[in-house]
Amino acid sequence: MCPSLLAPLNELPPVSNPCEALQTVLGFSIAPAHYREDMLVCFGFSGSATGSKDVYQSALRLAKGVMELLQASPAGRAVDPTPHIERYLTDGSLKRYLEQ
After folding, report:
1. What is the CA radius of gyration of the chain?
2. Using an 8 Å Cβ cutoff, are 80 and 69 in contact?
3. CA triplet 21, 9, 97: central angle to 5 degrees?
4. pTM higher than 0.90, yes or no?
5. Is residue 19 pLDDT above 70, yes or no?
6. Mean pLDDT across 81-98
7. For 73, what's the count of Cα atoms within 13 Å in the CB-facing half-sphere?
8. Closest CA to 21 of 35, 7, 41
9. How far is CA 19 from CA 25, 26, 80, in A?
10. Tens digit of pLDDT for each residue in 67-88?
11. 57: which DSSP letter?
């Protein structure tokens, strides 16, 4: 989900296979801190043993980071067609929900 939300904020070259697609999403220039590392952990491609707590921490950091980027960008707030998403991003409702 993170790559789909970040894609409109980044330049996307054409890709012709899954490997190129993965390289593209891992190389986004507009992404939260630790995005690449967190994505690799969540995909199970980190190259080391990771426990469920590590995956949870990476996923939560990704969600919060993407949300902050979407909040900061007018284009970002329009990425998701979910009703009222712009309001939830702007008023902090979504952030509070994630932090529960």
Report:
1. 14
2. no
3. 100
4. no
5. yes
6. 78
7. 19
8. 7
9. 10, 11, 26
10. 888 888 776 656 666 777 778 8
11. H
Hunting for tokens 């969600």 — which residue is that?
A: 63
Residue 98 CB neighbours (<10 A): 11
Q: How many domains does the chain have?
A: 1
Question: What residue numbers bound the domain in which 76 lies?
Answer: 2-98
Token pair 């426990």 in the structure block, residue? 51
Q: What is the CATH number of the domain that holds 81?
A: 1.20.120.330
44: left (phi over 0), alpha (psi -120 to 50) or beta: left
Give the pLDDT of residue 81: 67
Each as own residue / partner, the long-range contacts of residues 43-46 (CB below 8 Å, 24 or more positions apart, any chain) are: none
> Tokens 């990425």 label which residue?
79
Average pLDDT over every residue of 32-50: 92
